[in-house]
TrEMBL record:
All copies of domain NADP-dependent oxidoreductase, residue ranges: 16-317
GO cellular component terms, semicolon-separated: cytosol
Protein name (Swiss-Prot/TrEMBL): Aldo/keto reductase
Example GO molecular function: oxidoreductase activity
Organism: Agromyces bauzanensis
Keywords: Oxidoreductase
Superkingdom classification of source: Bacteria
Length: 329
């Protein structure tokens, strides 16, 4: 497993991390024993970075990680959580008072005195330019409630605004073979500033695994059923904003490219390794609903791809995906 510096946090983490939205909610049911087994498997395979949020299962994901941390003292795992979506998405709610309440709840859920990394959870665009927001976050650092802070963004412009702030440690952004726009400006700017990049939705909600067809049925409590058109949150979080039919077709072509590039790897592993190879990426955070998935994802952290594969990804994106997503985020 490769390791990378996590921006301005002063921490080093595995290049393949673990996203834990699946362990909280919105991806179908995952029971407690299975969730803990996923955490075990990921860490056992070299993963030292878990990403969560206070709204994943209304704190369930954080609480499960907290239990796991208590059972594995000295694991060396860095936990990043997110805050800001427990209230209506209005600028005025991003205040020191609310930050304290949210971080206090997350610290209790995780069973820690100081949170390793707290990220604003895709707030309204205007929040990224508000000095008062960063002053409030700095106060939490000074008080010892959080060790570092970053942002999770939907749009490239939001990322660039945050990167310019001297105390922002990391930016989390959607980056995958169906979402290439961050490569042009965000990753170079982050590298220049020493800001970490956490790549989320790396498999385009599973599309890039190549396992889904037009006949695939998702559970009613899976966002891939209920958020295909942005009914509950930004549509870009579901299949990277690509319509399902296009996504299935493009994913089939990606799978062919992946198998040619790395015959002994799965398309999902190739998709993760391609992101990890992008200069400036600190950690890629695929989710997993089983120990087997967690171990398979982690194996991508040591996979090298041949020259020319990146050009093939770009060609596929330009032909099949760009028109749907490039101008939107």
């Amino acid at each position: 497993m490769q390791t990378r510096a996590l921006g301005r946090t002063g921490r080093t983490v595995s290049v393949i991390g673990l996203g834990t939205w699946q362990l909280g909610a919105d991806w179908g049911d995952v029971d407690e024993a299975d969730a803990l087994a996923v955490l075990d498997a990921a860490n056992g395979a070299g993963v030292t970075f878990f990403d969560t949020a206070d709204v994943y299962g209304d704190g369930r994901s954080e609480s499960l990680i907290g239990r796991w941390l208590r059972e594995h003292p000295g694991s060396g795992v860095t936990v990043a959580t997110k805050m800001g979506r427990r209230m209506p998405q209005e600028h005025e709610n991003y205040s020191l008072e609310h930050f304290r309440a949210w971080t206090d709840r997350s610290r209790a859920n995780l069973g820690v005195d100081t949170l390793d990394l707290v990220q604003l959870h895709c707030p309204p665009t205007s929040v990224y330019s508000d000095d008062r927001v960063y002053d409030a976050l700095d106060t939490l650092v000074d008080e010892g409630a959080i060790a570092a802070y970053g942002v999770s963004v939907e749009k490239v412009d939001e990322a660039l605004t945050a990167i310019a702030r001297p105390s922002v440690a990391s930016v989390q952004i959607i980056l995958n073979a169906f979402r290439l726009k961050p490569l042009a400006e965000v990753l170079p700017a982050a590298r220049a500033a020493g800001v970490g990049i956490i790549a989320r939705v790396p498999l385009a909600s599973g599309l890039l695994s190549g396992r889904y067809t037009l006949d695939t049925q998702f559970a009613v409590n899976d966002h891939r059923s209920f958020n295909r058109h942005g009914e509950s949150f930004d549509v870009g979080e579901t299949f990277s904003g690509v319509d399902y039919e296009t996504g299935v077709r493009a994913a089939a072509e990606f799978s062919e490219l992946a198998r040619a590039a790395a015959p002994d790897a799965t398309p999902a592993q190739v998709a993760l390794a391609w992101i990890a190879a992008q200069p400036g990426v600190s950690s890629v955070i695929p989710g997993a609903r089983s120990p087997e998935q967690a171990r398979a994802n982690a194996a991508a952290g040591s996979l090298e791809l041949p020259d020319g594969f990146a050009a093939s990804v770009r060609d596929l994106y330009d032909r099949e995906i760009r028109a749907q997503v490039h101008a939107r985020w």
